[in-house]
Amino acid sequence: MIIGLTGPICAGKDEVARILVSMGFKRFSLFDEIKNELKEKNISLTRDHIQHYADSARRKEGVGVWARKIIKKLPSDVNCVVDSIRNPGEVEEFRELGDFFLVKVDAPSKLRFARMVKRAREQDPKTFEEFEILEEKDLGIGQPDYGQQHAQCFAFADKTVVNEGTLEKLHEIVSSTVDDLREISSSWTSLSYKNINEPAKI
User: Taking Cα atoms as reference points, which of 23, 26, 71, 29 lies closest to residue 178?
Assistant: First the structure.
């Protein structure tokens, strides 16, 4: 089984991915794939550079290009989690594998902005108004089809995980979501499924 993660800025996708890893999933990231290529080309990892490079590749090689790069690396004998899905073309590529579920990780916008302020990255917006402008871009407003189109990805989600409480509560929600997906999965790898009641190792 493959679980893909999508969601708005600072919703907690990394936390959900780490919880899934603690359950035995192997993690892959489209974002890391993009960053690794930029590093190889000695291009600085600014938000603008990352998005421009990702968009250019989708425009030249098709909107599913980053998904195809990851699919080549996916093992067949273990459950996987793939994060940083930002374009519906990527969802379509993973759907063709036959046992893929897209999970949207979400949280209220004010809470997500507070998390962004707390993490204090240099390139992050400093006001809520700037945050909203960045979010509109991520959602796909005014962006080309080959750009970031989070809103369209959200529409394809099989499940939604709302992350607005404690880490313990998030673990419970993720565990319940995995149980639901396990019921309908055709290729669940039971040997990779650890005790979901164990605390996430973060």
Answer: 23
Q: Which residue segment(s) compose the domain that 55 sits in? A: 2-189
- Alpha-carbon distance of 63 to 79, in angstroms, equals 25
- Cα–Cα distance measured from residue 100 to residue 94, given in angstroms and rounded to the nearest whole number: 6
CA distance 11 to 164: 8
Is residue 195 in some structural domain? no
CATH number at residue 170: 3.40.50.300
CA distance 5 to 27: 11
The arithmetic mean of pLDDT across residues 20-25, rounded, is 96
Q: What is the pTM of this model?
A: 0.90
Backbone angles phi, psi at 29, to 5 degrees: -140, 125
Sequence-separated (6 or more) residues with CB below 8 Å from residue 100? 1, 2, 3, 4, 94
Asked if residue 154 is part of any domain, the answer here is yes
Q: If pLDDT is split at 50, 70 and 90, which confidence band does 184 have?
A: confident
Does 200 reside within a domain?
no
The reply to whether 194 falls in a domain is no
